[in-house]
Each structure stands twice: as C-alpha cells, then as structure tokens.
Write a sequence for this structure.
C-alpha cells in the first residue's frame, strides 16, 4: 500500500507538521509520496531531499492562496492511487481534509496521535482527557495527524523522484485576493523549543509586552490563552489550546493563565511546564512541574533581569 501526504509549505520548504505526517505515514507503509500544492521550484527541490519520500508530486493551475475549494478536487483525483491520505492537523488540514474525504464518501479520522496498524488509530477526545481507538474500513483513509505526537522527518538524505500531477481548476465562486501575515523574528509557535504564554491575568494588550524581554532572552515563541485572544490582547495566531495551536515544547511557561481545560488540551504534552499565577488554586498548578504564586508584574521583570 502507498501513502500520500499533503504538504503545507511556506514557499521555500514544507512545514514541521508535514514532516511529522511523513513520519506517521512510515508507520503504515514504506511507500510514502508527497503532494506539493505550490507551483514553486524551490519547495519541490527541498521536498526531494526529505528522507523517506519516494515521489514528489508537483501540481499547477489555480493554486493561489491555497483555496480548499480549488485544491480539494485535485487531491481527490490524486488519492485514488493510495490507501491512506495524510495531512497535518493544523488550520490547513482542518480546512482541507473534510472536503476531500466527503468527495470520496469517506469519514475523516482527525488529529491522530498513535498508529496501531493500517486500519486502527488513536486520537484524543474530550479536550484530550480521553483517548479513543478507532478502526476504519474505508477503502481510502483520510487522516489528519497531530504533529506534536510524531517526530519530524529528516529534511536531508532523500532523493525522491518528481512526477507531474493534475492541475487545480477554479471553482468559479470565490477567488484569492490577498493574505495579511504577522511577521516576527521569534520561532514559529508550533515548532519552538520554548514557549512563553500569557493569559487574561496580564490585564491588557499594553501589558502583554511584559513577556517580550523574557521571550527574547530565552529565544522563545510567545503564545496566549483563548481568554487573552478574545479580550483583544494579541492576534488569533498566538492562541494555544483546543481551538488554537497544539504545542509540545521542551519548556512551556504559563503566565497569568488559570488553566481552563481547553487551554490545557493544547499544551499539556510539553516536557516541562512552569506556571506563574497569583491564585494558588488555579487549575494550571495541577499539571505544572514548577509553580510560582505571586504577582506576575513583579515576578516577570525580575526573572528577565536574572537570565543572562
């Protein structure tokens, strides 16, 4: 059996979630192909080097903006030669894969964190408080992969063949205009080894900058709870949690975050969790490896000063 991995890329190389999906695919079969949804030569060349990839399928046509309405039929056409189609479980995969599976009259299996065999998978439910083992008899299985549950495939060491795939056709109902992206010198939130996150306890958008010196000294990404995002302290792409980004860094520092179950679902797999909160009964302390009770406006500046 052969596996197709749908690549998400940044115009230069595929992202961390796609590399994890490739690792997951190899737990099912050694025949793993990757579908590139950008008509960009550099992405294709870098994808060829990924260890464990047999073929890189290039595409053309109306790929602007990665509109799922245009891309889903293309993937559906490619999927007929595969037993499994995998994508990362980020916003890209969540937008795309339900459409593809519906076109093939199959049920999508979401956010898997373990592969038992080619038909049986484990996925979190109830905000990560329980694990469900699911078995699929569909001819083609459409799966999204939790990237934090699988190591990233190596970017070097491969020599995949490049083959031409189908062209994406415009659906005629919508078109891509532009994309506004926030720019940052900090690591990507889902790939960072250290994450500093703030919650509603920080109090305002102006106060959120108190995290910047600490994050800069640690070389960390900055995240936030949904409460902080909903309050307008930071943009949506900072959000960590069940409805945001799932992270599993070496170190996660939760500052002014109470620890609602939805937030814990997005970060509780972090290797070491440090919680700073003035409420000693905050739920975050139940999963924290280290907890510090106190006023964050006193603690954070002092902690930043002490880090050299």
């Amino acid at each position: 059996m052969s596996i197709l991995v749908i690549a998400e890329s940044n115009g230069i190389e595929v992202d961390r979630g796609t590399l994890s999906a490739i690792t997951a695919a190899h737990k099912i079969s050694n025949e793993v192909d990757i579908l590139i949804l950008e008509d960009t030569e550099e992405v294709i060349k870098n994808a060829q080097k990924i260890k464990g990839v047999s073929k890189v399928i290039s595409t053309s046509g109306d790929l602007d903006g990665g509109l799922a309405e245009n891309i889903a039929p293309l993937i559906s056409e490619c999927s007929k030669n595969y037993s499994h189609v995998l994508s990362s479980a980020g916003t890209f995969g969540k937008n795309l894969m339900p459409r593809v599976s519906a076109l093939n009259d199959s049920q999508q299996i979401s956010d898997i964190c373990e592969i038992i065999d080619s038909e049986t998978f484990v996925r979190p439910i109830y905000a990560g408080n329980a694990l469900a083992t699911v078995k699929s008899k569909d001819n083609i299985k459409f799966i999204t992969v939790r990237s934090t549950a699988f190591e990233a495939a190596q970017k070097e060491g491969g020599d995949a063949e490049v083959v031409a795939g189908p062209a994406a056709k415009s659906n005629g109902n919508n078109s891509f205009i532009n994309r506004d992206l926030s720019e940052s010198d900090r690591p990507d939130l889902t790939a960072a080894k250290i994450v500093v996150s703030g919650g509603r306890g920080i109090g305002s958008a102006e106060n959120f900058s108190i995290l910047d010196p600490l994050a800069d000294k640690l070389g960390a990404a900055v995240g936030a709870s949904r409460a902080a995002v909903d309050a307008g302290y930071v943009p949506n792409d900072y959000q960590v949690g069940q409805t945001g980004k799932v992270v599993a860094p070496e170190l996660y520092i939760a500052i002014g975050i109470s620890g609602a179950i939805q937030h814990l679902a997005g970060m509780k797999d972090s290797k070491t969790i440090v919680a700073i909160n003035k409420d000693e009964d905050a739920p975050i302390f139940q999963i924290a490896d280290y907890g510090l009770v106190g006023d964050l406006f006193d603690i954070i500046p002092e902690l930043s000063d002490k880090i050299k």
The chain is about 25% helix and 25% strand. The chain has a mean pLDDT of 93. The longest strand covers residues 161-168. The radius of gyration is 21 Å.
